[in-house]
Amino acid sequence: MRCPYCGGSETQVKDSRPSEDGAAIRRRRVCPDCAGRFTTFERVQLREVVVLKRSGKRVPFDRDKLQRSIDVALRKRSVDPERVERLISGITRQLESAGEPEVTSEAIGELVMAALKGLDDVAYVRFASVYKNFREAKDFEDLLGTLGEGPLLTAAAPDPEVEPEPEPPRRRAGRA
User: Fold this and answer.
1) pLDDT at 46
2) Could you say which of 21, 39, 53, 161 has the lowest number of CB atoms within 10 Å?
3) Shortest CA distance to 36 belongs to which of 61, 11, 56?
4) Sign of the alpha-carbon torsion through 7, 2, 81, 97
5) How far is CA 45 from CA 89, 94, 131, in A?
């Protein structure tokens, strides 16, 4: 493993342990040349997956690119990083275990949208708006209708036909 600081090729592993989700090995490394310390992760890869882009171009699947796009959708959202890591690992595992050597970018986008819909509605809408290339507000309205919550609720004035129930009298605390 090359040192990210000086480019030295003889780094040493100082500590090795499973990651939080158990899907990777976390290795703490040190460079003997510059004394720089850094962490690497080793993950199991079941098979090479090739992504067929809309342009017809074929590129190797890049887990880091998937993570970056999900991170952009989740920017400033309070979602546990462990849940995000499980989501990314789950999508990657689905793609690798599907048995297909090639997968379309559309199929990956649909998997991400389905996963984000269950994780965070705002991230889902953000990702979908870029992925589906929204052009007008109507596109957002159509997507919001699929969230299952119906139209957005606004604060309504009380119904004048219904009289509110009177509050029970309050007791004052007395001295004992």
Assistant:
1) 61
2) 161
3) 11
4) positive
5) 11, 11, 26
